[in-house]
Structure formats: C-alpha cells, structure tokens
Amino acid sequence: MKKMNSLLTLALASALSITVLAGCGTGAQQGGDNKQAASGTDSAAGGAKPKMVMATSADYPPYEFHDTSSGKDEIVGFDIDIANYLAKEIGFDLEVKDMDFNGLLPALQSKRVDFVMAGMTPKPERLENADFSDMYYDAKNTIVSKKGSNLTKTEDLAGKKVGVQLGSIQEGEAQELAKNIQGLEIKSLNKIPEIVQELKSNRIDAAIIEDTVAKGYTESNQDLEFNVIAQSTPAGSAVAFPKGSENVTKFNAAIKKLKDSGELDKLIKKWFEK
Ligand code: ARG
Fold it and tell me: Which residue numbers delimit the Ionotropic glutamate receptor C-terminal domain (predicted)?
C-alpha cells in the first residue's frame, strides 16, 4: 500500500510538472501552442522551471560552435552565453538543439523548438514566418578569399564562384549581386566549415561571410583573408520566435537588461575582441 501511495504521488507529481510545462509554453515538448510566456515561477513539483528548447546552427564561431577542448563536445559561444543569461533572467531551463541553418525556421514554424538563436538576422522575408526580438548585435558582410586574390569589392566577383550558407542572408545577398555582376556563380552549402574547405582547396574563389565569423576563420587559416563589403540589406542578430509568440515581450525586456547592465558589452569583449 505504501508503495502504491508513493507511485500515486509520483504520478501526480509528473502530471503536475507536465501541466506546468504546458502552461509555460514549451511548444517543442508539447507539440502544441506555445503562445504563453515562460512564467519563471517554480512549480510545486520539485521546483522545476519550465523548459524552453532553443535551436541553433553550431557552425558559426564565435556565435555558436562545438568546443571539444575539455574532452567533451559542448556547444558554446556568444549566443549561448546570451541564451543562458536570458534563461536565468526569464526563468526557464535551456535546452540547445543543433541543426543545419536552413532547418531552423521550419523547426520554429512547426513548433518543434521554442526559439532560435543563430546569429540570425530579421530580414523582411523571414518576418512573414517568424517574429523577432530586438537586435542584440550588428554585423557586416565580407568577401573571404585566398590571400592576394584581390577580391576586395563586390564588382570583383564577376566570373567568380562564390560560396554562401544555404538559407542565409549572405545567400540572398549573392543572389542580388548576381543580377548585376556578370558570371557570378553561387554555390550554396549547409555549413560554414564546408565553405571554408571549398575555398582552401580552390573549388570556389570566394565566400560571403559576416565579419566576426570571417575574422575567426581567417585568423586560423593564414592562407585566407577577408574584405568588408557594402551590402544592400543590414546584417545583425536577433532571437526568432514562432509567429504570434507572446515570449517576444519577455525576451525584449531581458535583452534590454542585458544591454543596460553592461553584461552585453562584457560578452562582446569576451567573444569578439580576443
Ligand atoms: N546572419 C546571417 C543570417 O541570418 C547568417 C547566420 C548564420 N548563422 C549560423 N549559425 N550559421 O542569415
């Protein structure tokens, strides 16, 4: 009987925690509507916080990348530190899911994940399918190429094979450029390291990659250089949510605090000014 009782308690406790999760909008877990914001209050069932699933594409140092230096494979970076700050501030447990950049918005739309942080830019076409927080970082696009290849401005890409990440604003930028620049051929690839590899082995002539990411790859690959280019659309990063999500307001308040408290500046120093 005692056993029965504790089983019952257990069942009740997990039922409770499921209710709490449902109430806090982990659409990723419930497969349902995640309109409600994470409450941040501890549940009766053991003080568990609601869980929110964040999707990222961890091929983008210093924003998000796999760090194996400690012996185990961990996803770290600027976005991950910010996500942890937001989780603490808003009051949820953070789970990070890695996927191809091109799969992030579909995962959001089908509510398999609650939000996306992936150095993602709120460009107009994306606003049709997702809502975005305020921007937390600005960026510029660059041409990455072999050292000395003299590809410093967009016109130099005439007749060149240019690598970009599939589904990125850089791909959009290259498509825009190709309308006016003769013979610019686009090669879209899933992951940034694949693009860098193509470049190093001369299968493409250049890549369009954003400045801070280009900086890292050119520092660790001495045969490569980058040149900042003028761009038609602004770059930069914000958090993406399913359309209509009430979490946007909560996240914006926490992002404001991140900025006002000086914590964002600290993280910018930590990840971008090494
Ligand atoms: N800022 C660009 C965009 O929104 C590229 C982001 C790529 N991010 C990544 N984690 N690979 O399209």
Answer: 52-274
